[in-house]
Structures are given as structure tokens and as C-alpha cells.
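hey m, so remember when u said the C-alpha cells were messed up on ur end? i reran from scratch. heres the input so u can diff it against urs
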Amino acid sequence: MADARADETLAVGIDVGGTFTDLAAVARDGTVHAIKVLSVPTDRAAGVLEALGASSIAAASVAYIAHGTTVVTNLLLERRGARVVACATAGFTDLLELRRQERASLYDLTKHHARPLVAASDVIGVDERMGIDGVVRALSEQAIESVVQAVCDRAPDTVAITLVHAYADPAHERRLADALRARLAAVLPGCDVICSHAVLPEIREYERMATTVAEAYARPVVREYLGTLASRLVSHGYPAPRVMTSAGGTLHAAHAVEHAASLALSGPAGGVTGAAAVARAIGITRALTIDIGGTSADVGLIDDGEPLVERGGEVAGVPIALPRVLVEAVAAGGGSIGWIDAGGALRAGPESAGASPGPAAYGRGGARPTVTDAHVVLGHIAAGTWSGGVTISAERARAALNTLAAPLGVSVERAAEALVATADATMARALRRVSVERGIDPRDATLIAFGGGGPLHACGLAERLGMRRVVVPPHAGVLSAVGLAVAPVRRERVASLVVRTSTLGRDTLAEQLHAEADALGLSASDGLTARWWARVRFEGQGYELDVPVAPGDGGHEIAARFVERHVARAGFALDREIECISLRTTVGGAPWPVRFARPERDGTLASDVDDGRAMERAVSGPQVVRLADATLFVAAGWSARTLPTGGWMMERK
């Protein structure tokens, strides 16, 4: 896992968004150089190469490139993944259709869940049954042959195998997979066979099957995308990329191909990782984060100085029960298009102008009003030339906003204020969901706002949540790329561990912890370290909490930590036995160093352009400060000052 180019001088992070592609190059002394270019929607790999070309970075100076990609999210949204045939224990073939038997919406009977990634006719029943304590019905050679023939008849791109209780005993899955691979190698070369015990060896059949199918659905597309990107980078002298995972670490491209489902929140995880680095640098332990781009806003939570990592959650209606940095995305960004619904109400999004044609103010063919156009009308974004090759026109922005103002019977400025407020309301709801639902009062946290639009909306969002302190980090417009650049290589592994804590001995636990780390290639000579978490619950509960564990711990210590965390999260504890259901292990290296500091600059700070890293400065709102890669709006009733780390601190008066 050590880097082959460790003698080189730059770590490069590249975040490909719907509107912009951001690049941050972090030198070994921790200094950051960043650029922003328009994305190439039809060829994301071309956007990566364009960003590298615009940066003028010599390929020989690059130690590694870390990439945040939305390829998995997009293929799930657009349903354009591989054709999957699923194999499930006979009697359990309807799991993807039945889900948890909950409604998509309690009161809206017209709303339905997203359709499964596998058609019901492509789910094959397997005549076998494994129990928690062993074989209930053996898997015969005849049953295997029947399944193999049925799969070959359907000619899939990939095969997903999820047999009952395979997390406890994967013997049947392995036998079936071996037989399928042997036959498919001859008739369908290149067809992957993916087993649930390798993807998610954990209880809950539905979540395990849905996650395994998502892996099978995404893997061929991820293999093609990363293979193409790697070959194009290598042909230009750059190293093959690392890829950010949903859990906040990076994987080398060759390994990431085998963990496609873990890339579902690749891009947003980089932003929260970068925000956590800023929070630690200025001594903030708890913060809400919001990354507002051109197409969407991503909301996260930092607790104890680290991004909160949770299990489960849906991406585009698909349950993926793998560890992930808590991120909730909402369709509200600078490119969100304003429109009036049938009831006469003003809406913002979910449709976005994206990079092409973009907001009307860009002059690239867009004519419909966007949130960015509203900010231009209000004077929050100045007309003229900006980074990324964008030229802002106030006249075009006003013309677009007038299409809302006229039917509403208000001034263009009032329509612009209303459009910004509408977008703020959508983002504030997401911030409440990630905080209040986890027992965290937003008023006790700091808001870290970044992305191209974060500093513009920060004060308005904080006021809606009753928050009194906002941090706009250095390199705010490209912080996701910074997070990608400094994130360490990290491999993860989940193992089943169904046991009461009262019976879990220290030696037994330590032996399993070390075995899991060794399976991930732990090597002190490579500077790697291991960390472990147990997933724990009160017996009978339908949810669990992740509790950190270490060699030397016993069941008593795990139970005590769980109760403390449960009380903090839910406000109570139960008088029941406590049990573990699984163990998560990570093995990774040290992060690339990044230095957040405000260097001295000769001369006087320009009044209209500031990179947030210059001489100490303080302003009172209302005030607009143009940053190097974003715009900061200090609202009335707020004050702002530069920080020694770079960036700005805003406080409500």
C-alpha cells in the first residue's frame, strides 16, 4: 500500500462536479495551490486532464492523484448500470421487491419506491438453506447445475449471490460461485460473480442483498471508467489515480474497481474530510458542514474533530449498507433553476443549469433564472471575469430573473431575494436532519460553509438554525479537492461478530482484531495503522451504534462505551443484554500534511479581492468579500474576521 512515487513533491486532489472540476495541489510543506475549470459533462476523464493541463503541474512532480467521482451516484440515478442476475435462497427471491414493507410516503399513496436494480424475472431461486448454526438444507450438485444453466440462459453482465445466513457460513455461496465462474469463463468471459459474504458479511438479508446487487450493478461501469481514466493519466506521465470512498479514505484504482458500491458518495466525502482538517486546525470539535456547488448542496457532520461515519442509507433510492461519511445531498445549488409551480409558489430546483448551458449570467446559452443569477442581481457576485473561465453579466442575470418577477408581480430584486431564500430553506432542512435527528442541537455547533456557494449562503443558513458562528475555510471553493488530496489510502473490511458482550473475552476479541487487520495487509514497515469499531445494540433493537474498540478491550468496556453513546444519542438506556453484530476494521497510512496559515503579503490588501489568507482584516455586514475561488457575503447583523489559519470566522452580533 506504500506509494511508488513517494519521492515526488505534490499530492493532487481532483473533484469532478456537475458544473466545475476543482483541482488542489498540496506541496510537502503543506501549502496549497488550486484552480477551478468547467466540467466536461460528456467526458469526465477529459475534465480531469483539462484541470491538470490548466494547472501547469509537471507530471514528474506528482506523488499521487486522488479523485472524487460521481460515476456511481449518477449511474444509480439514471439506472444505466450493468445487467445483473441475482441468485437467492428459494423462498427469498422477492426481497428486493418487498423491501422492509414500508411505504415510500406515509400519506402520499401515489409515491413509490425506486424500482429494484434487478428485474424480478432475473432473480433465480437456489434450492438450499443455511441456518445461523449450520446447514438446514444442503446445496446439491443438481441444484448448482440448475442455477448455473439458468444464469447462462439469461446472459448477464454480472451475477450477485445472496444466500440466507451466508454472513455466518459462506460455504454455499462459495460453492455456487466457483461453479458459476468455471462455466461463465467459457460462455460469458468477463462476467463477474459477486458474493454477499465478500461485500457485506452482516445480518439483515434485505440490506445485504441490496448492497450486493448494487456492487454488481456498478462494478462494470466503474471498471471501464477508472480503467480509461488511469490509462489516459498514465499516457500523460501521471500516476494512476486513487479514488475517494464513501467512508472518507482512498483506494488505489485497481482496488477501487472491486469495491464499486463503496464509491457511491465519493465526491461529497472529500468535502467533509477537508472540513474536518480545517476544524482540527482551529480547535473546533463539533460542526455542521455544507458544500454548495453548482448542482447540489452536500450536508455533513463533524463530531470530536472527525467526520461522522455511519452504516447504511440510500443513494438514489438504493440501500447501500456500507460505512460512509454522513452526507445528505439536496438538489439546491448555484445552478438550481427557479420556477413557479401550478399553485403559484416559487421553487428552486431540482433541475439545474449545470455547466452547460449554465446560469444565464455566464453567457453560455442559459436563459432560465438560477440561484447564481439571483446573487448577481443582489450584488453578491460581481460582474466581470472569474476563475474557471467564467464571465459574469449582470444584464443577463436581471433578464432571467425578470421571468420570475413579472408573473409574481414583484421587482427583480425581490424575486432574487425570494429565490435565494427558497434555496436556503431547502438546505436548512437538510442541516436539521443530520443534526437534530442525531441528538445534536445546531445552536451548539459551528457551521463550516464551503464550495462555490457556501460562503454566499452561510449567514442565511445559520440564522435559520439559530447558529451564531460560521467558518469559511481557506480554499473554500475547492475544499473538496483539498480533502481528496490529503486523505490517506485506507482499506476497510467488515466481519460478522454476533455475540453478547457479556460473553466476549479480551483474548478472543484481540485475536479477531489482529486477524482482521492482517487480512487487510497491516504492515508497520509501510507506516500503516489499524482501527476497529464494533457495531453494537441492545438485544431486540432494530438499529445499532458503532463503538470504537482496540486490542485489550473486553465485552465490559464495549458495553460501557455503547451505553454512554446510546444515552448521548437517544437520551436513554435499556435494561437488556448488549450484543455485537459485526466488526469494522480499517488499515491506512498517515494523511498528507496540509498547512492552513495566513502568510504575510507585501502592500495593501485589495478591497475587492481577498484570498482569505492575507493580512488580518475585519468587516461588518452587510459586506461582500471576493475570495480567490468563491464569494463571501457577510449579512447585516454579522461581523467577520480573518483567521490565522486562513479563511474567515463570522459571528452573529
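this time it looks ok to me. Residues 1-6, 599-609 have pLDDT under 50 and may be disordered. if urs says something different then somethings off w ur setup not the seq
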